């Protein structure tokens, strides 16, 4: 018999650092899932990305089993890394705090395309570039399309 | 430890959600849950700074409507539902891990009662199962044993029941520290339970060290374990995948440990070394 899905939980957790505190604990615990089992698996799978914010989509089934998909870090987190800055601009629309190139924007757009609900790389790039500008980042050079 | 939840309602949701999560991460927020209208951010209460949050949100006011609500979440056992109905684990017909409410039908060499309370180690997980299995194959009578990252204390309790001379159980988490003490009492065994990390091991000496943690912590603390291990001492490690075994073996080789046995189960691995 096919397992019935009883819930879909979308969290963002730091690599290697899942613990039974909120939101992991209440979100999974209420469904009768063994939280400790999830934490052990998530942490083991993300040892190489320790500390990075990683989106994870957890599917919980009616028999209280679960599985999950770990995605790459959100576009904004990747943009900060690309621009080598810790925090975005305090006044994002006026003060530019850093730079990213169109190549970097393309790389992030390709990586996050499915999450951004875009059908073409170009539209994903426009979204990522928009996020960059909102964070106070200049997108350098000539738009490649 | 109580947590602070910050519930964000955003218009438009994107790109504000994406950006604010990346900014919240810089403010020591640990994790996030996406909601229809934004997200919830979670941070340990003593790390939360109301003013820092306020000035961050103000700086993004130009990007849309940001409404936030702060609330405190009391620490509690979130795993209680699962723990109230978990199934008995039978390790190779020799060791039983069960809850106080379970009835047993036949005697086992080792009958361990675990009331987990949000700590890891009931034998359901492959790594615990393999650690128990490795332990059962190891001479523990009159040995000095360390269970590092004790969780529920299941491995320490087994070691005590197998006749260890002394057993130390150490964990960095409050819940695990308290849970190991509770389970020690439930099983009526002698265990020295402490809260801390590998730094408290300096100057100690053990015949057997058990550590079911994760790859990064094991790689980092391996030299300390080896320092604390008597010659001919045994080190049993788990908490990682079969694909991570090469990294751990390499680190162990550099410390002149000799591989004695490998177990694997559903992609997880457990290694036994001798000094």
TL;DR of this structure?
Chain A is of the alpha+beta class and 145 residues long. Helix content of chain A is 34%, strand content 22%. In chain A, a hairpin with a 4-residue loop joins β2 and β3 (66-70).
Highlighted features:
A: 145 residues, alpha+beta, elongated, B: 275 residues, alpha/beta, four-stranded antiparallel beta sheet
Topology overview:
The complex is a heterodimer of chains A (145) and B (275).
Chain A: E1 5-14, H1 24-29, H2 35-45, E2 53-61, E3 66-70, H3 75-82, E4 98-101, H4 102-112, H5 121-134, E5 137-140
Parallel strand pairs in A: 4-5
Antiparallel strand pairs in A: 1-2, 2-3
Helix pairs in contact in A: 3-4, 4-5
Chain B: E1 3-11, H1 16-26, E2 31-35, E3 38-44, H2 50-59, E4 65-73, H3 80-83, E5 89-91, E6 95-98, E7 110-113, H4 126-136, E8 144-148, H5 154-161, E9 166-171, H6 174-187, E10 192-195, E11 206-212, H7 215-228, E12 229-241, H8 245-254, E13 258-265, E14 268-274
Parallel strand pairs in B: 6-7, 8-9, 8-11, 9-10, 11-12
Antiparallel strand pairs in B: 1-3, 1-4, 2-3, 5-6, 12-14, 13-14
Instruction: State mean pLDDT of chain A (0 to 100 scale).
Output: 90
Task: Tally the beta strands of chain B.
Answer: 14
Q: Which strand order does the major sheet of chain B show?
A: 10-9-8-11-12-14-13
For the biggest sheet of chain A, the summary is: 3 strands, antiparallel
Largest sheet entry of chain B:
7 strands, mixed
Could you say which structural class the secondary elements and strand pairing of chain B correspond to?
Answer: alpha/beta
Please compute the radius of gyration of chain A using only Cα atoms.
Answer: 18 Å
Number of discrete helical segments of chain A: 5
In the sheet with the most strands of chain A, the strands line up as: 1-2-3
Largest interface: A-B, 57 and 54 residues
